[in-house]
Amino acid sequence: MLNPVIALLLQVQVPGVAEHRVTDIFTPLASPAAAEKNIAMLTIAITTAIFVVVGGLILFTIFRFRRRPGDDLHQEPPQVYGSNQIEAAWTIIPLLIVFILIGVSARVIAAVQNASPPKSTLHVTVIGHQWWWEVYYPDYGVRTANEIHIPANIDGQTATYLTLQSADVIHSFWVPQLSGKMDLIPNRNNYLWIDPKDPGVYVGNCAEYCGTQHAKMLLRVIAQTPADFNKWAADQRKPQEENAQAAGAKAAFESLSCISCHAVRGTSAAGRFGPDLTHLMTRQTLAAGIMVNNGRSLRDWVNDPQYPKPGCFMPSMKLTNQELDQVVAYLQSLN
Q1: SS3 for 143?
Q2: Above pLDDT 90, what percent of the chain?
Q3: What is the reported pTM?
Q4: How many domains does one find in the chain?
């Protein structure tokens, strides 16, 4: 596996590595992000030109009208009043710049928001919680968390349409290389679409301060080939299979209050307050992207969630070592 430090420097996403960063907004890899980059570059170009002109005039004024030997220090410089040409210029030019930026922005925003769904469209509902993402696929009946699997737009005719909701406070969905920010607001549906051209892992963030652990509310969009996505979706639809070797561990898990908050399809665990755990070990990370999903991290997380994520709503159950071993063993069987 690529060294995480090298991956960070190269802006490469590594499956399974927790990444606390904002990816490069100037490397768009989907249509909405590319359109927004073009607006950004136009705005940067215009404001840079303004900066150069204004800065140049200031430097010229400083140099041209600097104090020289022999100047009368009590002589007031010549004053200029009532220049209609200057006043018209500094009124009309800024107005034109503002109207140009408004017009271009409105046109691009309308084009992105009003784009018609292509023939192959996947619908996904994303629900923001403090501090994790619930992901629901209504066409498949699949519910997962923090990782959004989608088909890549390899054929130019595939897109994913997201319905964004919030279960508590205002959150903001942002995957910089795929699209701009979109708020998730309680009692309201907002919409967003993405169409990454290439398979890969695209790192995202919550871009709206939503409480104590806002900075640790990470997400991943995992774009796959259509065949790989269909296989993933088919596997996710399966309920958890009975495992004779994990029967004792399952009984221990179901005896605890974990099942009040979490669901495991095919078992008595039917909670909806926390993430669905049915295929937990197929996910790359834990705790909304802040920990690698492996046995050691899973044990640390179950033992004391408040240590890596203070203030989260998952309490420490104060399990004995035997109970902790059983719970972790059962969770590791959820493939």
Answers
A1: strand
A2: 62
A3: 0.83
A4: 3
